[in-house]
Write a structure and sequence with these properties.
Elements: H1 2-11, H2 17-24, H3 28-34, H4 38-58, H5 64-77, H6 79-87, H7 92-114, H8 124-140, H9 146-161
GO molecular function: DNA-binding transcription factor activity; transcription cis-regulatory region binding
DNA-binding region: 16-35
Organism: Herbiconiux oxytropis
């Protein structure tokens, strides 16, 4: 799994699986016995990213801003995650990742709305659309420009989503960490 993560981070989702097997020190046959195709391997690798989002949701002080910052941080380091989410959205193996992210988003939207941090018109579907738009843009943005693009997108999201009692924050603070 760690070999696949490294290869995917460096090369993208379409990296040769032979490179993953070589990095892991196993034969391609062994890799294919555990993961019959590229999507199966990628879903297993990026399941850990979704677990990070779910852990963030479990902390009562977490907000939608925290979630967007973490998603941006994850997207900045892995084009493969972006590729997986945007290229195979209808694949049931990928769709469950989206369902889990949607559950996190819905929880944080409700929490932020109750705290007056989120404008009443913003829905979980709006946040998911914004995340999809961000993933698409970061997917074709050269790696060296992704942090700046992510900061600008974060500022737009924050402005569009903030409710009347939201405190101003520094756009993209987590994206630069």
């Amino acid at each position: 799994m760690s070999a696949a993560r490294e290869i995917f981070v460096d090369t993208g989702l379409h990296a040769p699986l032979s490179a993953v097997a070589k990095k892991a020190g196993v034969g391609q046959g062994s890799l294919y016995r555990h993961f019959p195709d590229r999507v199966s391997l990628a879903v297993a690798v990026f399941d850990e990213n979704i677990e990070e989002l779910e852990a963030l949701e479990e902390r009562p002080e977490s907000s939608l801003d925290d979630l967007l910052s973490l998603i941006i941080e994850q997207a900045l380091v892995s084009k493969a995650l972006i590729d997986l989410i945007t290229a195979d959205i209808d694949d049931p193996r990928v769709a469950h990742l989206g369902t889990r992210v949607q559950a996190v988003v819905d929880t944080l939207v409700a929490r932020d709305r109750a705290a007056g941090l989120l404008a009443p018109h913003v829905t979980g579907a709006d946040v998911m659309l914004a995340v999809s738009m961000l993933a698409g843009v970061l997917g074709w943005t050269p790696a060296e420009r992704r942090p700046e693009v992510a900061r600008r997108a974060w500022a737009l999201f924050h402005s569009a989503f903030s409710g009347p009692s939201a405190a101003p924050t520094t756009p993209g603070a987590a994206a630069t960490s």
